[in-house]
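Researcher: I'm preparing a figure for a lab meeting and need a structural model of a single chain. I don't have an experimental structure, so a prediction will have to do for now. The sequence is pasted below. Please return the structure as tokens so I can convert it later.
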Amino acid sequence: MFRRRVIFLLAVFGLFSVVLMARLAQVQLAWHDRFERARYTRTGGNRPVETVRGGIYTRWGTPLVREVPSFDLAVYYDRLPEREWKEPVARLTGRSLMQLEERAGQITRRVERIRRAVQRNTGMEHVRVVEQNEAHRVVANVPAEVAAAVRAAPERFPGVVVLESARREYPNGELAPHVVGQVGVMTPQRWEEVRSEGRAWTMAEPVSEIGARYRQDDRFGRSGVEREFESLLRGRRGYVINRLVFHILKVEEESTEEPPEPGLDVYLTLREDFQRAANEALRRAAEDEELEFRQGALVILDVRTGAVLAAATYPGYDAATYGQDIGGLASDPRSPLLYRPTGAALPSGSVYKIITAIAALEEGAVSPTTSLRCEGSATFQGRTFRCLARWGHGSLALVPAIEDSCNVYFYRAGLAAGGEALARWGRAFGLGAPTGVDLPFERAGQVPLANATFEVINLSIGQGRLLVTPLQVANMMAAIANGGRLNTPHFFSHASRPNGETVKVHQPRNQRIPVSAGTLDAVRQGMRRAVASGTARDAGLEPFQAAGKTGTAELGPSGLYHAWFAGYAPHSDPKVAFAVVNERTSGHGSSHAAPIIGYALEDIWDQVLELP
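Model: Understood. Here is the structure written out token by token.
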């Protein structure tokens, strides 16, 4: 009985084997072409291929930031507590054992926080997160020879591996660091943003879908051009997919590669010569005790296009040492991290009288020849408002009123035009609203709607609740100089591939301001006379044929002012418009701001005249 059962089972298994072999033969020999996708079996080694982030350059190609290779030493998580790797790494890199211990502790605490979070979210008591299987950076940006030494003798550095990456290098880090901006690591908030936008990639997805999507350990632009043009600079990753290909009676290895696309290089409108001149002018002002300059900004625009040729802020910093200096920069009461050309919203003082003049002329409240009398002060509703000229200017028309910055004239002209007109014309020239410049975090400022008499009087001379930025004021002056066209100021010139092929250029945007040629002509005459024989006559600007307006904004009872000067040059054929502000000084715009633009023009005047 037992023998018959064994023979029966063997026969069943034999029959099953014959059927199985026949079926396999049919699939392998007759049907293999039907299984085009099923014939692939993935092997290990699928991986993304990193791209290179684009660089940022001045208009003529001076590098502000570029990507360079970087080598980091990393240690596998489980070996972080060991002492065996610390001593040789300390000797090779010059780090102390204490520094390496501290770094290992930071990594351990971070990974443990991640593990506990996963425990809470999953409800599982025993979990092991991906970070526990990875190597973590303990020394960043080591020289190439250090990386080579570790790779050449791995037995001397147990658990240590070399990670290759890229870092941002700032060969001219002091030139325009705020404009360039910073690149930072992916924050939890930013990661949630890219996930919600469908731009995140995780290891659970096919590597072929990574492209321009973000990984959780990616860098991204956090400020400046790095942030504004992130999509151009970051490029696209490539990938490698390895497969086993099953043919009839043989197996082959196959690899698919998609090369990465490097990020585009971004070229700015900033000219190195103009930017250096602006930086040097502010530095020189800080060294001139008579100017009492501690913080401020200077902007120079192309009057035709709105291109930002220079935009300096003081104090500044060096992007190359930003990481080491951040503590001192953040605690400095002068706010060196603030980019004042677009981020400092301040009252403009008498610079706003140009808007008051335009409003009064366009609304028919005065004509260029209308004379208004100044006796040193004027009383409105029982309150006396004074002029800078103690004994007054006598009777004067619009042009000499701008020339001598007569407060009383503009009190009367502003009241005649009305508060609504003063605000409307200020906004028409781009004040108190974002300019649309291609940098993030621009302050809007405000041009208040003045209703009460005292509000109108304050606004007519640029006081009260008025807030404007240096870029807005410079752009206003450009519109006056070019005949009433308000350009959108811009830093972006063009973007190109590493081979030099231009793929994107700036598209200009502007709008026509409905102001008459006669009004602009009268205002420009007054601004020219302010430099030649008026409030700015001693500022040293006459060699540059400049036209402009001084401004002094009072800061309450402190005895301090924001001193302004804004204008354009040369007056007969305007090439550049500019604005400079000296914050919280005891002097006026004529003495403590106007000379600063003279410092800059001294260095670049020949180049200004060569502009088209």
